[in-house]
Amino acid sequence: MIKKFLFNLLIICAPFSTNATILETRHIANVIPLVDSETWFLVDLDNTLFEGAEAYGHAAWFYDAVNDGLEDGLSKEEIINIFYPRWIASQKTCPVKPLEKEFISFITDLQNQGIVVMGFTHRQPVIADSTIRQVNSLNIDFTLTAPSEEVFSLEAKNPTLYQNGILFVGDFNKKGEIFSKFLNHIDDAPNKIVFIDDKLKNVEEVESVADRLGIPYTGVHYTAIDHAAPIYSREIAEEQYRLYKEREAAESVKDIWESWTVFTWTDDR
After folding, report:
1. pTM for the whole structure
2. pLDDT of 82-95, one tens digit each?
């Protein structure tokens, strides 16, 4: 059952649980009243906390590549193996911007109150360093009130990582499954959960875990990306990628030349 409320907020009552609610909103202001001192606030990254500030490295570029591969008859695993090296390279240089500036101040306010805030992303561990750099560029540090200070991996079908207060689920693992394993590993659990993600299926997966554990849960399907001014276009992304490869090649030639001149100078001596 779906009821439309004021402030462009949709509330979807979970059919099998009295402890869970799923909301849909494009405004972070509607989420602020949901979080209190008993809550763990779980934050998706791509197209939720932030989006790429350039077409090359924007999450939509990655999704386009996946969809193209599926249309060509490739499996998702095959597509990732082919395209992910490009994605890794793009995240080393791609800047990010918040979907809403208020999102950043909201997280800061929660952390100042000592409320648990944690990053929760489908990104793979191989780009953890780039991801942490991007998050920090927004003046966000998830370690400040993270539920654990450890750095560890969880056993799963594909690699996972928890580092700097961010749980890297990986592309092929499910967020609900990995979050359950995360709670088991740290031997702790929240009194309440609020989880915000631009993908409804992720919100629903975590809802099922909260329901099984008897934890009151509010899942927020955050649609700000659908209303944001367009940054991504395939043509621009591919042109930026071409220029990146040209610059990379030029720098490689420069490095080779400098290494050669150092070698010959040393040799002459």
Report:
1. 0.85
2. 988 888 999 999 99
